[in-house]
Design brief:
Layout (H helix, E strand, L loop, with lengths): L1 E5 L5 H11 L5 E5 L2 H6 L8 E2 L18 E2 L2
Parallel strand pairs: 1-2, 1-3
Antiparallel strand pairs: 3-4
Length: about 70
Amino acid sequence: MKIHTLGPAVTDSYRAAEQYRADHENLEVVGHPSFEVLYQSIPELRGELLLISRGGQNANRGQLGGPALPIR
């Protein structure tokens, strides 16, 4: 299973996903270049996990956020 979040590895979101992965076997972290790109990919990510930082901002400075959720 994969957990999708903002990349690269130096972002807080990616580091949080890595920490979550440390407690869950067989989980791969996938970084995306922006939350907008990640949101546009949701239809293809069915059955995988999504981690969005509560303090994240999109390119228009709008707030994003929430817990790690399964994509159904």
